[in-house]
C-alpha cells in the first residue's frame, strides 16, 4: 500500500484529494482566464521538443502541442499519477498526437540528457522542496542552448530568483510577470 502523500516510488506529492481540488480550481481559473496567450512568449517554435514539467491536469498542453506542431514533441511530466492520467485523457480526447505524458520519480523525469529545446515549469515551483535538485534535473534535460521558463507559483519572485542564482546552473535573461526566462550556464569541462 502506498502511504498518503507519496507515489508508488515513495516520493513526496500532494494527496489525491488535494490534486482533484487543485484540478477543479485550475479548470475554473482557465475558464475565467484561458491560458492561451501565456506560452506564446516563451519561445516554442515549430518542430521543437518541449517539456511541460509539473504539467498537472494539462492546462498548457494543447497550446504547447499547437506551437510545437506535428513535427515537434511535448513531454508532459508530473510526479502525480492523476496528472498523467488527466493528460493522457486530454491527448485522446483532443487528438494531441505529439504530446507524451511522463510519470516522474521525484525530480527525475526519465528523459534523456539534452533532449529539450525548451522546458517550462509554471504554477508549481512553490511546491518544490529541493530547488537545487529540481533545477539540476531541468538543466540535465535541456539542450546547451535551450530555454527554461520558470514560474514562481505561489511564492515571491525574490525567492525564485534566489533559487535560480544559488543553483549555479542557470542565468536569468528576461523577467515577465508570469515567469523567468532562463538559459543554461556553460559548465566547465
Automatic annotation (TrEMBL):
Keywords noted in UniProt: Methyltransferase, Transferase
- Tell me which stretches of the chain form a coiled coil: none
**Would you say which domain of life the source belongs to?**
Archaea
Record domain Methyltransferase type: where: 51-149
Q: Which is one GO molecular function term here?
A: methyltransferase activity
Under Pfam families, the record lists: Methyltransf_11
Q: Does the keyword tRNA-binding apply?
A: no
Question: InterPro entries of this UniProt entry?
Answer: Methyltransf_11, SAM-binding_MTase, SAM-dependent_MTases_sf
Biological-process GO terms, alphabetical:
methylation
Please state what the protein is called.
Answer: Class I SAM-dependent methyltransferase
Amino acid at each position: 500500500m502506498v502511504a498518503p502523500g507519496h507515489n508508488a516510488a515513495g516520493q513526496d506529492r500532494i494527496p489525491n484529494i488535494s490534486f482533484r481540488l487543485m484540478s477543479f480550481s485550475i479548470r475554473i481559473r482557465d475558464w475565467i482566464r484561458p491560458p492561451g496567450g501565456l506560452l506564446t512568449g516563451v519561445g516554442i517554435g515549430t518542430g521543437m521538443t518541449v517539456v511541460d514539467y509539473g504539467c498537472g491536469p494539462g492546462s498548457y498542453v494543447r497550446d504547447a502541442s499547437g506551437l510545437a506542431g506535428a513535427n515537434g514533441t511535448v513531454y508532459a511530466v508530473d510526479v502525480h499519477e492523476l496528472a498523467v492520467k488527466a493528460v493522457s485523457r486530454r491527448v485522446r480526447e483532443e487528438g494531441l498526437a505529439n504530446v507524451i505524458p511522463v510519470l516522474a520519480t521525484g525530480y527525475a523525469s526519465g528523459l534523456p540528457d539534452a533532449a529539450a529545446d525548451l522546458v517550462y515549469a509554471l504554477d508549481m515551483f512553490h511546491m518544490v522542496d529541493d530547488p537545487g535538485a529540481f533545477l539540476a534535473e531541468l538543466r540535465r534535460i535541456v539542450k546547451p542552448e535551450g530555454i527554461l521558463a520558470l514560474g514562481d507559483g505561489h511564492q515571491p519572485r525574490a525567492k525564485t530568483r534566489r533559487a535560480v542564482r544559488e543553483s549555479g546552473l542557470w542565468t536569468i535573461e528576461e523577467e515577465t510577470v508570469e515567469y523567468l526566462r532562463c538559459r543554461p550556464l556553460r559548465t566547465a569541462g
